[in-house]
């Protein structure tokens, strides 16, 4: 009995890897450090390559858009070979979306109308193509700005697509998030801050 070969980064099962032009991603499988892995692009020799993959699993997209296919082969130490074939789509970014964690609710499971004073939140930016699919890899550096700096404090997060917000005063702040390399790709988020805990 042995484990079936799967990609764990990015997590794709029956779908495809979606990349923006001139980006890269490190492919990781559940058989890394257990089996000998090899990677290759399956496109024909007459086709201009859309992506390149090296022996360590670094998948790079070029400036061209289009689709390609890669093959991952796992050679197990007990003699079994496993192969997976994954589609790769290189496409331009159409828009970005912002999500927040943790999700805040009242005791009765209702959504809050404002952020509580004194809370620290993580905002994650997701990039999408024109059909709404989320990118696994992109080449964007995020920028952010607020219309005032006395109600919330904003800082970079642990990764390029995250930032941390701490609420410090009651009031309304407008947050703008944009990708400098892609003009017109931005989002604006209102950040209302209110007292949410009151004595009974």
Give structural attributes:
200 residues; mainly beta; Immunoglobulin-like; 2 domains; four-stranded antiparallel beta sheet; 17 strands; elongated; NUP210-like
Describe this structure in words.
By secondary structure, the chain is an all-beta fold. It folds into two domains: 84 residues, Immunoglobulin-like (Sandwich); 100 residues, Immunoglobulin-like, CATH 2.60.40. The protein is built from no helices and 17 strands. The strands form five sheets. Strands 2-9-8-5 form a four-stranded mixed sheet, with no helix packed on it. The protein has a four-stranded antiparallel sheet with strand order 10-12-15-14, with no helix packed on it. Strands 11-17-16-13 form a four-stranded mixed sheet, with no helix packed on it. Strand 8 and strand 9 form a beta hairpin. It starts with 6 loop residues before the first strand and ends in a 6-residue tail after the last strand.
